[in-house]
Design goal:
About 50% of the residues lie in helices and about 15% in strands. The chain contains ten helices and five strands, in the order βαβαβαβαβαααααα. The protein starts with a strand and ends with a helix.
């Protein structure tokens, strides 16, 4: 059975140890590295060779947003799942723009962590509805100027618009598939078309453009 290699960047020892125990104790997962900060991110990533990184958004020294940016640029194939306590709109949005693939709340139960790791490994982008609202709140607080949808025509189909709206709300691919009664693979195909039409390369960029240009 293929095991998903997961590296943990977390300065809280209790949470760090708990996550390592959960990951190593679950078939299909292995913890390839545990690190207390992001100061040696490149060496740590090369040594642990993870496929998914659990990244604490708040760490001493190099914080999670900065580490996410560096890892995403140097190792674009690695998926990064941000761990947050859900208190800072701007940091959450900054991590999204830095290349994070999804978010998990530190208060979520173990099975949610495992589901999120699996989802992001398979190309999904888990973002809780609450975190999605935080991202929307960031734009509202910053008074971002939205472009009228009529001003820019990306030729999105009605189905693609529907899926993009659900992505902005924080729904993952499996939830989207269930809500609109299509398969998981069909959702992924639609998302690829959305990326191409919007000229973006990730969910974070698609959400950013959707919000900025009023596509949601």
């Amino acid at each position: 059975m293929k095991e998903i290699r997961v590296a943990i960047f977390e300065d809280n020892k209790l949470l760090r140890d708990a996550l390592q125990t959960i990951i190593d104790g679950t078939p299909g997962f292995t913890c390839s590295g545990v690190f207390t900060d992001g100061n040696r991110w490149e060496t740590d990533i090369k040594r642990s060779e993870p496929e998914v990184v659990l990244m604490d958004i708040e760490m001493p020294g190099l914080n999670g947003v900065e580490a996410t940016k560096f890892i995403s640029e140097k190792f674009p194939g690695i998926k990064i799942l941000i761990q947050t306590v859900f208190s800072d709109n701007e940091k959450i949005f900054s991590a999204l723009c830095a290349g994070a693939s999804g978010y998990i709340l530190k208060t979520d139960p173990p099975h949610k962590y495992l589901e999120a790791i699996t989802d992001v490994y398979n190309g999904g982008a888990p973002i809780s509805g609450g975190v999605a609202k935080k991202i929307l709140g960031f734009f509202g607080n910053k008074n971002v100027i939205l472009v009228s949808p009529e001003t820019v025509d990306y030729n999105l189909s009605e189905r693609e618009k529907e899926i993009l709206q659900l992505m902005v709300k924080g729904e993952n691919y499996r939830d989207i598939a269930g809500k609109i009664f299509i398969s998981y693979e069909t959702v992924r195909t639609h998302v690829k078309h959305i990326y191409k039409k919007l000229h973006v390369a990730s969910r974070s960029e698609a959400i950013q453009k959707a919000i900025q240009q009023g596509l949601h």
